[in-house]
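Review form for a predicted model. The reviewer records the input and the model, then writes brief findings.
Reviewer: anonymous (R2)
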Amino acid sequence: MKKAIKWVLIIGGSLVALVLLSLLIVPQFVDVQQYKPEIEKRVSEATGRPFTLGGDLGLSLFPWVGLSFSDLHLGNPPGFKEKDLVAVKSFEVRVKLIPLLSRDIQVKRFILEGPRIVLERRKDGRGNWEGMGKPSGEVSDKAPEEKKGAPESESGRGLPIKSLAVSEFAIRDGSVLWIDHVNGERREISDLTLRLEDVSLDRPIELALSVRLEGKPLSLKGKVGPVGKEPGKGTIPLDLAVQALKQVEMSLKGTIIDPLERPQFDLALQVSPFSPRKLFSDLGQTFPIKTADPKALDHVALKVNLKGNPETISVSDGTLDLDESRLTFSVKAKDFSRPNVAFDLSLDQIDADRYLPAAGENKPVEEKEMTEAPAPEQKKIDYTPLRRLVLDGAIRVGKLKAHGARLQDVNVKVAGKNGYFHLDPLTLRLYQGNVSSKGALDVRQDVPKSNVQLDAQGIQVGPLLKDLLEKDFLEGTVQSTVVINLAGDDPEKIKSTLNGKGDLLFKDGAIVGMDLAGMVRNVKATFGLAEKGGERPRTDFSELHAPFTITNGVVNTPKTSLMSPLIRVLAAGDANLVDETLDFRVEPKFVGTIKGQGDTMQRSGLMVPVLVTGTFSSPKFRPDLKGMLKKGLEDGLPQPSDLKKILPGQGVQEGESVPLEEKAKDLLKGLPFGR
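Model under review:
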């Protein structure tokens, strides 16, 4: 028995020694170069592209299984300007043989030198990467059967290895070139270098990537792992740092859990302060956003925590610095097939006017387009995504400047689902007053519907108009209530479906630029026939009350009244928002005596009714002579024969339009229908 065991060991050892000796000797005597033509032929047939190996082909079997080659070229099909799709200067890999039997991968070297990939798209839209290998119709139908027959226990598992160790891993001097003949684009990634150090399953892997994008440097450094004994399962730590163009520095830290089975992530992202304008300048590109302030978007920083899985993602502790503004935010989204989004945004301050285009920007181009070509037909808006959206959020802004107006303490609550969204409440402070509002948007049907309710109290209208319109024609404190309903998603449709009502009340103010009392005394002054004085006129009032209704885009005021120490004014009529026309009658009454701002007694005086017609942009004013005569001889009204004395030699007839002072236009623009 002992002799048998002895002989078995001797024979077995001899066989092993013989195999090892063969692995060492065979590569020395076998000329692998003679197989190059066959390899080139087979690869060409498999890819449908020309394939060549210009350099030597190296092979070793023991103790390291090694393969090396150089000057590899995988060409392009006919019709492309570039010769190669893929080119490699040299490649070498060495893997230890014996440990492979126990799924232990030990790599001595993995070196790829000078890989170059050229992606080219012809003018007909075809890319050089298309059509490689066999046509899709020739793919074997055995794949589903093979997958079905695979052991269920291996499905979804990690890589089938026990351990991994790589001494040297490097990709050097790589490049990727993108050529698009359709759009005339050419982009290049060059000087690509990737190094991995201490590659193992049970230790963190250090990586270093450097590359040039259009000649500009980009680098990535950090650690990944350990990936664990079962790669793709468990928790994998990340600690990465990115630097771009020596301008942008970004760090990403956290963990990825079960990336192959039930992927989850918990990451902290931080972008250090940088200047987007300087970044684009260093790239040699024009900054894509035109802003009124050329120094806007010069400082940006971001810090945020990201956590989630394929079904849910949450953003917490977010901070975005934008110039002098800081936004803190949190967002949570789930069920992406029917997005359910909750958010909370808080902005300390922002001057929105800095980020809007400069006044008159692109105006010549727009005018040219309007004269040379008709406006394109507006595409129908698809509201299906909004109908699937579930929304619940809050927005707060400490200080906001928009279109010149200054607002404080803006608070908005928005919520909705199934295509119905509402803002309730929306509150803010501006110009010593308060605004409280709520509204709704209904997109459950193809034609959207909206409604807005607004209540404003104690707003100083003078400073508001100066900042918002750069006009100074009205002073006082305003309070208002407005309810508006509308439908449609284009301006013309919205104007024609506008309905609602409102009430504007101005107290203790003045109409600047008009002296109504003086105009009543002098008809010539009323209609711009007298010489202008040097002092700017004004009409003080104790109350200006303007109730109105809106019916299908027509604004009607039945009785707008102005109460002043010297004059009372009543106005009634319509402003048509659809065709932008005016039809008003203004009836002033001069008061003979004054008892103070609170005097409401009806008093006799000279009546000079005025008809306001024309359009919003070009209003017309004329005396209502027929209405004035119809009143009869009351309290010293002039005889018909005296009208010639009032307007001597002016040739002003009833129905004839005479332009009023330019400030009258400003006043009309300040009314509810004026904008």
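Findings: The longest strand covers residues 474-487.
Further findings: The CA atoms of residues 423 and 523 lie 50 Å apart.
Recommendation: see findings above.
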